[in-house]
Amino acid sequence: MDILIRSYRSSDEALLIDLWRRCNLVVPQNDPARDIAAKLAFQPDLLLVAERNQSIVGSAMVGYEGHRGWIHYLAVAPELQREGLGARLMTAAESELRKLGCQKLNLQVRGTNLDVVSFYEQIGYSIDDCVSMGKRLT
Length: 138
Fold this sequence. Notes:
By secondary structure, the protein is of the alpha+beta class. The protein is 31% helix and 22% strand. It has four helices and five strands, in the order E-H-H-E-E-E-H-E-H. Strand 4 (69-76), helix 3 and strand 5 (105-107) form a beta-alpha-beta unit. The longest helix is centred in the middle third of the chain and has 15 residues, at 85-99. The protein starts with a strand and ends in a 16-residue tail after the last helix. The model has no long low-confidence stretch (mean pLDDT 94).
């Protein structure tokens, strides 16, 4: 699989949003263009994309605030899923976080998304005994 994992470029926006839509990651309460703009305002080099033949086929939005790392928008083009690209993206994300001194990486998966839970378990993640809470500020 001839795929390059690199930081996002502004010319990637339309292709990246299309990928997220094809992977069912776009929900009504999140504007993907606004999410990209927010990421570019803080740690823009941690928005990773996987490129193949001038197309965006994967992504990972990585965050670190000095205590914990986070992953958002992990996506792999449907036609490339189950070929190892998701694991490669996570390895790249973990590497970037280690460089920053991050000791633990967190992520959230909808409880009903058992295939994704299984994917993360296969690459070494485990379910933490905690309650995820949130409050929408916008």
